Each structure stands twice: as structure tokens, then as C-alpha cells.
Amino acid sequence: MSEKIEHNEETTEEFEVVELESEEGEIEEFVIIDRVDIADKPYAIMALLEDMENMEGMSEEEFHEHYGEEDIFFIMRQDGEEFLELTDDEFAAIKDDLDKELEKRGM
Questions:
Q1: Is the pLDDT at 4 greater than 50, yes or no?
Q2: In terms of CB atoms within 10 Å, which end of the chain has fewer, N or C?
Q3: 103 — phi, psi (to 5°)?
Q4: Which ranges of 57-105 does DSSP label H, i.e. alpha helix?
Q5: Predicted confidence band of residue 91 (pLDDT cuts 50, 70, 90)
Q6: Which of 79, 73, 96 shows the shortest CA–CA distance to 43?
Q7: Structural domain tally of the chain?
Q8: Which residues of 46-82 are buried (b: 16+ CB within 10 A; e: fewer)?
Q9: What pLDDT is recorded for position 73?
């Protein structure tokens, strides 16, 4: 599924949206911002669709008031159609490579 997200009146970007079930059994929609391969494994950089939509009309100051220091983006490993949360050890193992890849992409 893809979703169009308005950035302003002049631009519209289309992102892939996936539905994932939480541990509580609730279905939530997530936007895949980007994908990256690290150590021959695919990872998806994601955010909640609701957070992305909320962010649309916010100034940087309003964003910081609403979210504080909280990062709305996170990474999950993709295994076929499934998205898996990373263990602390897995995240630590890919962190340096992930940081380098994101820096190359200007993120």
C-alpha cells in the first residue's frame, strides 16, 4: 500500500505504508521512509503514519514542543513480508554501518 503525504502545496511524496500488529493486538500503520542493506540483511527505516501526518503542518519549534527529544524514526529488519524489531545486540552490531549509510544519504 502506498500513501501520499503532502509536504506543502507544491510537493507531494508517496511512501509505502504497512500495517503491523502490536503485541497488544492493535493494528498500526507505519510509513517506510527508506530501506538499507547492512551485512546482507534488509532493514526498513520507519515511522508511525500518524506521526508523519502530524509532522506535516508543524514548524520545527512545534515539533520539539510535541515530541521533545523523542525520535519518531526507528529501524526494523525485514524478513520477506514481516518486519522484526531489533534486539539491543542486533542494533549495536549494525549501528556504525547504519550511521555511515544514513550520513551518505543525507539523513
A1: no
A2: N
A3: -65, -40
A4: 60-67, 88-104
A5: very high
A6: 79
A7: 1
A8: bbbbebbeebeeeeeeeeeeeeeeeebeebbbbeeee
A9: 86
For residue 61, the one-letter residue type is E
Amino acid at 5: I
Residue 15 C-alpha cell reads as 511512501
Residue range of the domain that includes 81: 2-104
Mean of pLDDT over the chain: 83
pLDDT band (50, 70, 90) for residue 13? low
End-to-end CA distance of the chain: 24
Residue 27 grid coordinates: 493494528
d(CA 91, CA 94) in angstroms, rounded, equals: 5
Q: What angle do CA 1, 22, 94 make, to 5 degrees?
A: 80
